[in-house]
Write a structure and sequence with these properties.
The structure is a single chain. The chain has 242 residues and is of the alpha/beta class. It has one domain: P-loop containing nucleotide triphosphate hydrolases (Rossmann fold). 34% of the residues lie in helices and 27% in strands. A six-stranded mixed beta sheet has the order 6-7-8-3-9-10, sandwiched between helices. A four-stranded antiparallel beta sheet has the order 2-1-4-5. The chain starts with 8 loop residues before the first strand and ends with a helix.
């Protein structure tokens, strides 16, 4: 199993625990993300992938562990503090401001960012997704599901994050839109943003990830490269097969 040197880590999740009521969902999740890496969190439904992203973002209060960004512990901080520190979330629910236009939604996401994080502009977002430029004066509530996914991703990027968490970006999308979203994530990676991707489609995750983590029973059961994962059929059967 490949390991990243401690000094290279931008985001470190250490022994993370989280509960929903009395249910102990995350039971000691640990992994790290290097600068410019794409890490995919894989696992069956209910394995804790989305809860991990929400706990990192402060939307689910951690009940134990550390979330270190450049050495600063963000565990227990409020979501807006975590966002300002350099972490962004693209939620699975595609949460847009339905009564605002595409342009207005994008403006809602804009933040100065950090000196060591790539800077993004609205025009760059339109380069990613030309369809959004065509619809820039349309209310977000009138967009298709694919267009709302594009908008949510762009709004998160405009906070100029160091790390972006992307939760199930291709869920329910047509194959052509899935390809566009996958290419956008690859471009985000090329421009130096670290990505934590939660993706149900294994082919997409393996294609664009530098490393993958398998979650099972509330903790990481494997961390390695896509090739290391696909070279272990028993691991795939035990933790990913339905």
């Amino acid at each position: 199993m490949s390991q990243m040197k401690q000094s290279q880590a931008l985001l470190q999740v250490k022994d993370l625990h989280a509960h929903y009521g009395k249910s102990h969902i995350l039971q000691g999740v640990s992994f790290d993300v290097g600068r410019g890496e794409v890490i995919s969190l894989l696992g069956r439904n209910g394995s804790g992938r989305s809860t991990t992203a929400r706990a990192i973002m402060g939307l689910v209060p951690p009940t134990g562990g550390q979330i270190l960004l450049d050495g600063r512990d963000l565990a227990g901080e409020r979501p807006y503090t975590i966002c300002r520190a350099g972490v962004a979330l693209v939620p699975e629910e595609r949460e847009v401001f339905g009564n605002l236009t595409v342009d207005e939604n994008l403006q809602m996401g804009m933040q100065p960012g950090h000196d060591d994080a790539p800077k993004w502009t609205v025009e760059q977002m339109f380069d990613f997704f030309p369809r959004l430029k065509e619809r820039r004066n349309t209310r977000a509530g009138n967009l298709s599901g694919g267009e709302q996914q594009m908008l949510t991703m762009c709004r998160s990027l405009l906070s100029n994050p160091k790390v972006i968490l992307i939760d199930e970006p291709t869920e329910g999308l047509a194959p052509k839109i899935v390809q566009v979203v996958g290419e956008a994530i690859q471009e985000i990676h090329r421009r130096g943003v670290s990505v934590v991707l939660i993706e149900q489609k294994l082919t997409i995750a393996l294609k664009i990830s530098t490393h993958v983590c398998l979650l099972g029973h509330g903790h990481i059961v494997f961390r390695g490269t896509p090739d290391e994962l696909t070279g272990n059929p028993q691991l795939l059967k035990d933790w990913l097969a339905v």
